[in-house]
Every structure is written in structure tokens, then in C-alpha cells.
User: Fold this.
Amino acid sequence: MPNLSPAPATTLSPSPSSTVAPSPTPTAAPADATSLISGDAEYRHVLALADDIGSRTAGSEAEAAAADYIAGQLASYGYDATLEPFEMNLYVEPESTLEVLSPEPVSLEPRALHLSAAGDVTGELAAAGLGRPQDFPPEGMTHRVALLERGELNFSDKVANAAAAGAVAVIVYNNEEGAFRGDLDQQSAIPAVGISQADGQRLLGLLAEGPVTVLLSVQGGGPQTDTSRNVVARPPDGHCEEVVGAHYDSVEAGPGANDNASGVGVLLETARVLAASGDDEGVCFVAFGAEEVGLFGSRSFVDGLNADERAALRGMVNVDMVGVGDQWQLFGSEELVAEVDAEAASLGLDPVPAEAPTGLSSDYRSFMDADIPAVLIHRVDDPRYHSSEDRAQFVKPQALQEAAELTLLTLRLLGQP
Ligand code: BES
Ligand code: ZN
Assistant:
């Protein structure tokens, strides 16, 4: 990047009277931002977030501690960093248990259907096929627990039909191998759970021998409201022309070193080098909370922009999972992705063209949904994604270094001076 800032006057020799300008003293001027990037500094942020703080689930104390760490770092580079809280509506899965009481005690592993009613129910089990109205016995299901096969009807219809027949609870067994968690369209009148195909076969086997009594319990969980926060560093005039964004929360399973302490390390280092080189004009840095539970932080940030702010925002760079794997991949707005892709060669990098990963999402989506150009910088593939093994030891400082270079490149392509 060209250095546009004048060198401090005190370090220059007096101007000669000739029209030829003196060549600037190289050491006197702030350095080019890219040359200041340190992959090791980025890695230290990964250690601080993943090793020292650990798993940072949305709304947790650890997430709040991570926000404080990030705000502290941004402040140390001279930014005015603020914590911007937001509410999130979460659905917490209830605890559920299923015990066969007779003819012999058996414990099964049910999962409550999403939006199941809570309750403890004891009753005689009765199989009723797929749960269509004609599948229920003519004498009805009063005081009975319906055992239904998954398939053909949606879960809400199965449960409503069973309740209409008088059933006190519903157990749906899978129509393929393994367990599952089904969704109801709305809160059911009676508790409803899913079990694996094998557990379903087991219950059917017991029923073939005679009456079976079960105790089904669905407790706790349900809709909950919690608070998280974004950490935002804005330029002195408060307006963002570009946003660098990375989520700092993690899943519960592990310390989220690659997903996404790596992206936060890159965000912090980008903020540091732009401040040091004086090239931070118009750039906002936003560390998002609560990404893993539904992109709440980025949605809240985008929702908080007024029409003028939205119009002034030229684009967003999302850094997510950038420390593991061997290959750069870019997703997002077609034009911007193509530009970054083409220019990456100047850094000696060659990202592979990519379709948006099916079923996977990150904060750039919130910006694209608001028609703000956005690109996700990402590295493939992480075999420890969302696991307890997503640890700092697998994150490569060199990859973090390159991610910061790609981030600065993208900011320049978005028009940042
Ligand atoms: N970093 C991941 C998304 C990701 C994974 C992007 C692999 C590209 C390649 C992100 O943190 C994540 O897991 N997001 C959730 C978000 C959802 C709950 C809205 C996802 O995609 O399941
Ligand atoms: Zn992520």
C-alpha cells in the first residue's frame, strides 16, 4: 500500500530551494500496513481466546471475558472500542428420558421434538403405524403412549392425530438408522420425542410379547432470552465505510481455536497494523457475539444501521476459520469474490473458486441479506470443526498472516485508501 502520510517535519532536512523534492527518509514514515502484519501476534490472540478462556458459548461468562479481551486489545491500539449488547432468542432443548417399566426395565435415549410440550407421563405403549387417523385402534388411545414410525406425515400431524385419539404422549421412531431430532410446527399438546430405529424395533419386539408400560419425561428447555454483545471499534467520526468482522463465540464442545479465535486474531492484527500505518480511516472492526447460535451478533449490527449508514457501507470482510487447512476459499458477493480472487495472486495466493458451503453459514450472510457486498475469507478443510479438538496447536501462524494480507487486500478493493 502506498504510504500517503507525510513524514514528520522534524526528521526532514530543510527543503532545498530547488524544485526537486527531497526523497523521504525511509525510516521517518509510518510503514506500509501489510509489512507490519505479524502471524505470531495473531497466534497469541488465538492462545488467549482458546487456551486461556476456552469454550465461549453465546451468553456465557467466557464469551463476556473474550469480549473484554478484544475490547482491551483494540483500546491498546488507540481505538475507541465499545461493547454493544443485544438480546437473542434461543430455543433450549429440554431434558428427556424414556424408561420401560414393564415387562422389564430398559432405558432408552429419546430426544424431545422441537417445541414438544413438557411433562412426565406413565402409560401403556400402543403402536399406531405412521400415525394417520386410520392407524389408531378403534377403541382409541386413552391413557396410552403412542409409538409411531417416522415418515409420510409431518411430526405435528402425527402428534395432533395421536392427541385427538386420546394419547398422553408420542414416541416417534426413526425410519432410517440412527437417532434424530424432529421439529414440530408449533407447541404440541402432549410430550413428543424421537428415538432411533433400533430402539423403535426393540419396543415393537416387546409389544409383540405383551403389554409394555413406559415412563416418558420431557422437562425444562424451551424458548429463552439471553444477552450477548458485539465489540465495535469505529473511526472517530463513527461512520463505517468498510467492516472487518469475525465472530468470537464458539460452540460448547471445544475451545474454538480455528472457529473462530483465528478470525479474531486476524481482525485484531488488521486493526493494529492499520492504526500503526495511519490507514484506518473509514474502517470499522466488529467482533460478533452469538454467531454459532444463529448469527445474532451480525444481524443485530446490521439491523442497527440506519439508511445513511447502510448506504455509506461499501462492504464487509468476514474472517472465519482461517488457521487450519491448506487452501484459501472465498464465498460471498460474486463481484467482490472475483476481484479478491484475481488480486490474490499479487500476494502469491491462489484461492479456489467455491460455491457457498451447503448448510453452513457465517456473519457475511447478515450483510449480504441487507444488500451489502460481503466476502468470507475461509480456509479448507478443518477435520476438527466444532469438536473438543479445535485447539490452538493446530492453528498455523503463517495461515493467519496470509488471512490478514487477504483482509487488507479486500479493504483496498473496497476503496479503502
Ligand atoms: N465457521 C462456521 C461456518 C463455516 C464452516 C463456514 C465451514 C465455512 C466453512 C460457523 O461458525 C458455523 O458453524 N456457523 C453455523 C451458523 C448457524 C448456526 C447460523 C453453521 O453454519 O451451522
Ligand atoms: Zn465460525
